[in-house]
Structures are given as structure tokens and as C-alpha cells.
Amino acid sequence: MQTHIEAKSSTKANFVEILGSAVIYLFRAFKDIFAGRIQVSMLISRLVFIGYESILMIVALCSIASMILTYNTAIELTNQGGRELVGGLIAVADLREIVPIFVAFALAARCGTALTAEISTMTVTEQVDVLKVLKIDPVYFLLSPTLLAVIILTPLLLAIAIIVSLFSGMFIAKMVINLEFAEFLNSAWKYVGLKEYFYPLIKTEIFCIYALLINVTMGLNCKGGAKEVGLATTKATALVIVGIIILDGLLTPILFID
Prior knowledge:
mainly alpha
């Protein structure tokens, strides 16, 4: 019984430690960015890695999610006399919820897990300790370029995801209820306000920064061997998914409140 309680306490302590480390690393990384202390070669590597590796998954997830949403709502709205609402509903749902969440999920699934495994392996094989011996800050070398790459790439990835989602919705609406593209777009422009242009970018930036911050933090805090590398990757994925949902629940009423 005592061992079980100690194990639970240790798990909670580890969870709090990870979140605390993530906040500290975030401030240190932003300090490097604002001071212009960024390793250019690592930044370019992260830009190519994050952009190239995540784009296909972002397109797939956002298009399929938009298709499913359109299919499930277009017929019912038409039956209830709300045909003119289809484009607006799909556009608002895509911009406010589907695209920001699925962009972050895709980024975490495709790039975040790889970063956690890579940095965890560097940590357990003492490569991170070598950086410290050489007086190279691991946060400066590993996190700061990654954070800046995410900040730079997120608007581009978000724009691509929005275009793909809206065209997917238009295609399904045309197939299911024979809704013309012009009707869909007119409805979308009618119900999409100014906040739908800027607030999704805020949400997506926060989600993506959080996701990769947790992944890198888990890697830097990994201790042990090969087994712990796998556990760190699994825990990071769980923390990212749950954290993004919680952040969405907190940000949505703040950003979109009338």
C-alpha cells in the first residue's frame, strides 16, 4: 500500500516537474529568440523538417474532418430549410475548431514524437551532457530553433489547412446536396467575421508551441535507457493531446465571446 502511494506521488511530481521545466525552457527560448541568439543551420533544419514532414498529414486530417462534418450537417440543414447556412457553418467550424486542433495534432504526431525520441536518445546517451561540457546550452541548441521554426511556419500551415478544408467542404456539399460553389462561398463570407481571420492563428500558434515545447521538454528530462525513451515519447503524446483540448476549452470562450 505504501509503495503504491509513493508511486502515485512520484508520478504527480514528475508531471508537475515537466510542466515547470516547460515554462522555464519557454522563457529561456524566447530570450534567445529576442536576443537574436539562434543557430541558423539548426533553424533551417527545423524549418525543413517541420514543414515537409507535417504538411501531408495536415492536409489529410483537415480535409477528411471537413468532409465528415459537411456530410453530417449538409443533408440535415437542407431538410430543415437551412440550405443557405451550410457554407457558413462549415467555414466557421473549420476556422474556429477543426483546423487549429488538427494542425496541432498533425504537427505533434508527425514531428513532435520524432523530436521527443531524438532528444531523449541524445539525453540517455549523454550527448546533451557533452553539449553542456562544451558550454552549449541545450535549450539554445535544441529548443530555441524549434520554437522559432514553429512560429514562422504556423501561419503558412494554417493557410494551407484552411484552403484545403473549405474546398473539401465545398466538394462534399456539391456531391451530397448539389450546393454550388458560389452558394457555399457566399454563405461562408456572410457568416465569417473579422475574428475568424485572426483568432484561429492565435489558437494554432499557441497549440503548436505547446505541443513541441512539451515534446522537447520530455526529451530533455528523459533519464534511463531505451525503455525510458519509449515511455517519454508516449507520455509526451498524451500530455500534448490532453493539453491541446484543455487549452482549446480555455481559449474558445475568451477569443470568440461576443
